[in-house]
Amino acid sequence: MHTQFVSRLALTITVLTVGMWMSAVALPSAQRSDTQGIKEAENFVKAGADLSSAIGKARLQIETTLAAYNGLVSQPTSNMKDDFKKLLSGTKDMDAKVDDARARVAKMEAAGTTYFAGRAATNKQIQDAALAQTAQQRLDENQKEYSGMMASLREAGQSLHELRIEIDNQITFLGSDLTPGAAASIKPQAQSLNERGREVLTKSGESIATANKYFNSMRPSKG
């Protein structure tokens, strides 16, 4: 009886040991499927396209709002009240689009973290030394480009945010004193606002173009 118990115990331990060894061998492939990286890349590129588009929409709405503001302050208007109402309507759209663009920066950063961590994990499964080195070099290059591009987009989002605050402040001023005299009194500020606006819109446009170029380079070709 004792001998049979020992034999069964030894057999059980052997089976468990073999099972644990086989699980350990299979673990890397279970962690990273052949298509997981493709899916992460798709999510990465989509998040980038969404962010770029959101910043573009915020940029366009600020440009539209600035034009409406100038129509009220920098140029003569025959109906200040109606023009001010149109300006307020555009301001709401501007605020919503700028907030959306800034919110998408965090989503992009999360997608970037997942994507690059996934590529790093996949690279560790490459057993050919030369191929692994090439993969690591490309990963480093892509991450460096991504960091520079994201810094530019963050700056664009922040600049648009600061510009819309300046616009909101001047609109608030006019809301309590909607008269030709009040409009004339802030023409120096209006000129400064427009100069800053041109600078911000130009730089944000350049950031969007750089981002679009980067994310397009991360897409698979379709033939």
Low-confidence region ranges: 12-30
Mean pLDDT: 85
Provide the succession of SSEs: HHHHHH
Radius of gyration: 29 Å
The oligomerization state is single chain
Secondary structure tally: strands? 0
Total domain modules: 1
Helix content: over 70%
Distance between the termini: 72 Å
Number of helices: 6
Strand percentage: under 5%
Large-scale geometry: elongated
Largest sheet: none
What would you call the structural class? mainly alpha
SSE map:
Elements: H1 2-31, H2 36-73, H3 80-123, H4 129-176, H5 180-185, H6 187-217
Helix pairs in contact: 2-3, 2-4, 2-6, 3-4, 4-6
Description of the molecule:
It is a single chain. The protein is an all-alpha fold. It has one domain. The protein is built from 6 helices and no strands. It has helices at 2-31, 36-73, 80-123, 129-176, 180-185, 187-217. Helix 2 (36-73) packs parallel to helix 4 (129-176), helix 2 runs antiparallel to helix 6 and helix 4 (129-176) runs antiparallel to helix 6. It is elongated and about 75 Å long. The model is unreliable at 12-30 (pLDDT under 50).
In a few lines, what is going on in this structure?
With 223 residues, the chain is an all-alpha fold. The chain is built from six helices and no strands.
Descriptive terms for the model:
single chain, 223 residues, mainly alpha, 6 helices, 88% helix, elongated
